[in-house]
Design a protein that fits this description.
By secondary structure, the protein is mainly beta. The chain has 1 helix and 11 strands; from the N terminus they run H-E-E-E-E-E-E-E-E-E-E-E. It has one domain. The N and C termini lie far apart (about 50 Å).
């Protein structure tokens, strides 16, 4: 077996294992300490319609503020096994939050995905914090988020998931 083929197979296997573990753990569970004002929930996004292999995860997280800083709120959505080059729109509780083009995650173009990351600590869209965007008002507070969808360019729901109320 050539080194290139072996490297490609290893990369695809590692990515698949990561996705499998992430999906197995993403069962709408609260995995952070239940201290006041802190928590994390992760859900699995299930395939719908025309892309039966598609999937993903959504995560909400809130952490206490320190000193004079307000609490940190984060919202992350990752769509996997999508059609490369297709634009996907993130819909949360009926609100259009943003769009992204699925990019290949391997040299052999086997996998494509999108990622949406928002943080309350980012105030200026031009001054991103890492790869996070400012948290839209429609997502504040993140603990109120219930329904998450990714839709394709034809406005068809590709993946969907729901956070359960506490």
């Amino acid at each position: 077996m050539s080194k290139k083929l072996f490297s490609t197979l290893l990369a695809v296997s590692a990515f698949s294992f990561f996705c499998f573990i992430s999906m197995a753990m993403a069962q709408n569970i609260d995995i952070a300490a239940k201290s006041a004002g802190e928590g994390r929930k992760v859900i699995k996004l299930e395939a719908m319609g025309g892309e039966p292999d598609a999937g993903g995860v959504a995560k909400i997280e809130i952490r206490k503020g320190r000193k004079s800083r307000p609490p940190l709120q984060e919202f992350l959505v990752i769509g996997t096994k999508l059609q490369a080059g297709t634009t996907y729109t993130l819909i949360v509780d009926g609100n259009t939050i943003g769009s992204a083009v699925a990019e290949d995650s391997s040299r052999d173009k086997i996998q494509a995905g999108v990622e949406f990351k928002f943080s309350s600590r980012v105030k200026d869209p031009a001054a991103k914090m890492g790869d996070a965007n400012p948290l839209p008002m429609a997502l504040d507070p993140v603990t109120n988020i219930r329904h998450v969808e990714l839709r394709d360019a034809n406005n068809q729901v590709v993946v969907v998931g729901d956070f359960m109320p506490e």
